[in-house]
Design a protein that fits this description.
By secondary structure, this protein is of the alpha+beta class. It is built from twelve helices and twelve strands. It has four domains: 102 residues, Reverse transcriptase/Diguanylate cyclase domain (Alpha-Beta Plaits, 2-Layer Sandwich); 63 residues, MutS, DNA mismatch repair protein, domain I; 51 residues, 5' to 3' exonuclease, C-terminal subdomain (DNA polymerase, domain 1), CATH 1.10.150; 99 residues, Dna Ligase, domain 1, CATH 3.30.1490.100. It is globular and about 65 Å long.
Amino acid sequence: MRRILHVDMDAFYASVEQRDHPDLRGRPVAVGGDAEKRGVVAAASYEARTFGVRSAIPMARAKRLCPSLVIVRPDFTKYRAVSQQVFAMFRDVTPLVEPLSLDEAYLDVTENAWGEPLGTTVARRLKDQIRERTGLTASAGVAPNKFLAKIASGWQKPDGLTVIAPERVETFLQSLPIDALWGVGPVTARKLRARGIHKLVDIRTVDPRMLHDTVGSLADWLARLAHGIDDRPVVSERHPKSSGSERTFADDVTDLDDIRDTIRTMARNAAAWLVRHELYARTVTLKVRYDDFTTITRSHSDAPTRDANAIVARARALLEKTEVGERPVRLLGVSVHNFGPEVTPAPEPQARLPFDV
């Protein structure tokens, strides 16, 4: 039986700011963009969450929910440094660490450097180390698989530790609502409840065809999770599948020169990322969101490249396939995908001399 941990830092960005700025402790804090410029909440302290402030909501809405909210601009260089410190602790325990973001990861501690037979003990020691070395708290879930460990880590936040031992799995599953399932968002949850599926275990008894009609390709996956089955291993190294950037404008943009300049900058940044990672991309994708929130993407695939001028040219050519210039633009994005090796042109055949054999 595997022993899997899911460790999740508590309100990570906001907690780092509260740690480094004592005047913010105990106050509702949101890390993110300016409320006057369409900023979005990247992280909210637990004091802010009591007002309904959550990550990914517009900062203007967060400010309405909590007029006393303190808004802090993000410092990702600082957050990455703390993240590296935390992940170094993880990797001192086991090489099987699967990052999900800067502030959370899966760890397979079935075998570990401490020789601890219990995942609970490993989780408790890691939580103590994180607190001692960073001044921050983390919540952890311990379970026989990734699905259950992730649910468990959020069970008693902040600074929580929830253990689902193999003999407790069925009892735990019986208590879970349908939207606890991985892949079930609000829309899918409403569809399932409309079919009389309110709890996780209800999925076990429904007609598989009805489930497939309701959630499509998710049906088989959800059926397995409803039985607590998740055989996915912890994968320590993930190969990136794409890279890119987006920019949301404070005011809708119509000037084509400004738009082209933005695209050039993002395309060159994508090319620089490819160079740093020693990769070549076959596909360039342009994303455009108009002022009415209509979002489109245009893609072009060709020989693998990481040449900045080539990627800029592809991105600009895709721009011609949009209504940019005719409709105001709210957001632009450029990304590269479909990585592969560089294609070396075949050498020109050499003429044979009369005496060649």
